[in-house]
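Model: Ready when you are.
Researcher: Fold this.
Model:
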Amino acid sequence: MAAHKYLLLICCMLWAGHAFGQEEKCACCTEDHKAFDFWVGSWLVSNADGTLAGRNTIVKSENNCVIQENWTSTQAGFTGISTNFYNQITKQWEQLWIDSTGGHLKLSGNRIGNQMILASEEFENKMGVLNRNRITWTMNEDGTVRQLWEILEGEKVVGVAFDGLYERVEGTKD
């Protein structure tokens, strides 16, 4: 009788180990969720004129559901973070950026080809004109990423807030 109890216990343990050992389905491992993975990594970021703008570390978290950005500028004391995720309801990527000056941006959009293009809602600038922010990250063939932040009036580009080139820090990968 005792042998049957041990056998039953071993069978239950094996079944539990098998049941709990099964991988859970990754809710954020679709191609849509991976669309911004080319930005993941540790980067040195240069301005369009080649001067160093800062360092940026982008990591995936929350079981691959969030891309977290951590920016440190060469401007003393200027830092920022963003949280990026694919919204399964709206079928768009969303970003919330907050920096050490209290500035913030809310953006949404999608990847088209080798570019992630996110834009803000319209806002009224200091002169009463309606503008939008549009930021485009372009995955280049050499592994670098260009980030271009444009100010739009309608669909017309009326300014560039930032034009930077991301170069991967040695030894890091996406």
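Researcher: Now this one.
Model:
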Amino acid sequence: MNIEYINPFIEASQTVLLQMASIQAKLGKVYLKDSPHKSNTIAIIVGLTGKIRGQVIFTMSIPLGLEIASKMMGGMTISELDEISKSAISELTNMILGNTATILYNRGIGIDITPPSLIMGENLQISTDKMKTICIPLLLGESDVLEIDLSVMDT
């Protein structure tokens, strides 16, 4: 996978997390994931079309999802992932990918994104057949990790 594809996802994620949730995200060690791979409890899937074809999957624990949703809603206490909090974290991923698309477009790489789909559950397994998956871990605080799994088709 071309490194010029990865950096815009990192840049956009760090910017949007800081702007929308006042969360400073540090980049962890990027690595290649095997398929199928286990997911954290929440997975938000967004499709990519255009110059880059594939999908992006944001995964996080439920406590991290609650914290992000709370911060996005001005610090309001959130104790369960209801429709409003799920919508908030889905919209966060939408904003991240919208910013990523803009960065890529400005570099001559046009992409379109699909609306996000949020799934939750214990022991989720995600298979990205025929695509390599690069995991971009973002470290949020001392122990929280938001993983961005970028799976693209070889073109």
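Researcher: Key takeaway?
Model: The first strand starts at residue 25 and ends at 27.
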